[in-house]
């Protein structure tokens, strides 16, 4: 080994440096000449010993006994003690900076943050991922999905409270159960369609414009997913595709770009119904979607002035058979029976309107006019009989003593919703009857006009003077189920349209 020459700092007055070999330094052995050196040299040696490395093995010259080592006792000198080894702690630069800032902040009194600084700190906190997102992102997504499904029930109770009550016990699977448990609800189109409805509902409830914009972005994303499903032959007839289309159609009614923008969706939904066929809507969730959206299909037919495809015999037969199945399963009620039979006549009204218009505008034969008049009279008489029957049962229920266990309209429909459902159904019948009466008047006037007109003085077509005003809106109690704000209660106008069987779409 090469000798190590150690020159002691602060002891430059020594004539010669103290030279220690690496082995002697590591084992703390000293040269014999050093032991007999002068006191100054001894002090220099002690200083060198202080910086010498600790021995890792071998014999030690100091036994390190306390309070004094044996060597110092034998030499009768004061033991200087033992060197305290420094313990090394590794600290990164951010930790040191953080500790420095913490120590400084402890001494200084914290100042109140400015509004800009506060919002900046809030943005940093929101931008920082939570421990759930970092450790278990899948669990976070599952929890969010579960919460959204629970909020969806509030959306249903706010937008369609009475329609949901009218059919929740009659169908095999409700919308709430479909979203919560059905595998078809996990598709991208349904998922984003439900999310945009929920986000819109929360934005409307809390007056949050940013959330409203977010719901529109979700709507666009749901549209793209729905377009992919429509291009897939394996999914185009599925329940998930139709459910997504209905969800987006309802959203378009609630937050459309125009007063009639929902008609684009409604036409597409009607095309899906026709593509699937009547048999797909006898039971299961197909039946639920049919009962949910059929009134909107009638309203679309009134708005576009065209017959409703549901008036065809195959669709009417399907609905009658489904109603009989409900009766066999014990799900029926007198209120449900009356409203279903009334709907069978109401859905014929758009076709009557179109045929009457074409007949008056053209030169139809007398036989075709008489045939149309007979059909309208038949529907009017049936509808008027159902209206009187429902009004009598409703009056009887209102006069029923509270001690009686069963009222005339009791059945599968919850008792607290019976009055509202019956009242709105009666109003829909009123509108349909008013339309049918006016069509009969127009047909009769057209007949008189054709008989009494001559070539020099042709009679003006009364069709251009048709005016019709639906039954006035009355004060209707709205259930508090699911929501508690007046603004959200106003959303039930879709519920009114559905229970009126689509006749509220009639306007002057």
From TrEMBL:
The lineage of its organism: Eukaryota, Fungi, Dikarya, Ascomycota, Pezizomycotina. This is C6 finger domain protein. The keyword Protease does not apply. It holds the Pfam family Fungal_trans_2. Residues 455-467 have a biased composition (Polar residues). Residues 98-118, 455-482 are annotated as: Disordered. Transmembrane segments: none annotated. One of its GO terms (molecular function) is zinc ion binding. Keywords: Nucleus, Transcription, Transcription regulation. CDD domains: GAL4.
């Amino acid at each position: 080994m090469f000798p190590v020459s150690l020159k002691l700092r602060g002891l430059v007055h020594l004539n010669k440096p103290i030279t220690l070999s690496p082995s002697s330094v590591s084992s703390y052995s000293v040269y014999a000449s050093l032991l007999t050196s002068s006191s100054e040299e001894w002090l220099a040696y002690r200083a060198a010993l202080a910086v010498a490395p600790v021995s890792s093995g071998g014999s030690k010259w100091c036994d390190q006994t306390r309070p004094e080592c044996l060597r110092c006792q034998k030499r009768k000198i004061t033991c200087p003690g033992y060197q305290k080894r420094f313990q090394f702690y590794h600290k990164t630069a951010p930790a040191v900076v953080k500790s420095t800032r913490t120590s400084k902040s402890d001494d200084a009194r914290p100042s109140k943050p400015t509004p800009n600084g506060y919002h900046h700190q809030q943005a940093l906190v929101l931008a920082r991922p939570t421990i759930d997102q970092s450790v278990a992102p899948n669990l976070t997504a599952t929890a969010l999905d579960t919460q959204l499904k629970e909020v969806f029930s509030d959306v249903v109770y706010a937008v369609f409270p009475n329609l949901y009550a009218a059919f929740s016990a009659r169908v095999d699977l409700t919308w709430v159960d479909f979203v919560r448990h059905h595998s078809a609800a996990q598709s991208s189109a349904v998922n984003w369609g439900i999310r945009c409805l929920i986000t819109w509902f929360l934005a409307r409830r809390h007056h949050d414009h940013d959330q409203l914009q977010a719901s529109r972005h979700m709507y666009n994303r749901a549209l793209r997913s729905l377009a992919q499903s429509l291009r897939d032959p394996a999914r185009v007839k599925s329940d998930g595709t139709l459910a997504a289309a209905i969800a987006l159609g309802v959203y378009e009614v609630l937050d459309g770009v125009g007063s009639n923008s929902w008609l684009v969706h409604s036409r597409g939904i009607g095309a899906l119904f026709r593509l699937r066929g009547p048999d797909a809507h006898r039971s299961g969730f197909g039946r639920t979607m049919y009962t949910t959206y059929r009134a909107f299909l009638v309203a679309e037919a009134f708005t576009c002035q065209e017959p409703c495809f549901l008036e065809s015999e195959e669709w009417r037969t399907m609905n009658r058979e489904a109603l009989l199945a409900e009766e066999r399963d014990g799900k029926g009620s007198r209120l449900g029976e009356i409203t279903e039979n009334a709907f069978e006549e109401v859905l014929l009204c758009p076709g009557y309107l179109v045929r009457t218009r074409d007949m008056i505008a053209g030169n139809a034969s007398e036989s075709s006019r008489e045939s149309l008049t007979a059909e309208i009279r038949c529907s009017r008489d049936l509808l008027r009989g159902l209206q009187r029957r429902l009004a009598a049962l409703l009056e009887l229920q209102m006069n029923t003593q509270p001690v009686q266990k069963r009222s005339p309209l009791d059945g599968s429909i919850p008792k607290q919703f019976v009055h509202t459902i019956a009242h709105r159904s009666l109003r829909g019948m009123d509108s349909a009857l008013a339309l049918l009466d006016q069509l009969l008047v127009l047909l009769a006037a057209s007949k008189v006009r054709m008989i009494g007109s001559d070539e020099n003085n042709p009679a003006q077509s009364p069709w251009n003077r048709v005016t019709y005003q639906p039954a006035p809106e009355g004060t209707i109690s709205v259930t508090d189920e699911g929501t508690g704000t007046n603004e959200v209660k106003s959303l039930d106008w879709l519920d009114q349209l559905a229970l009126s069987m689509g006749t509220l779409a009639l306007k002057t």
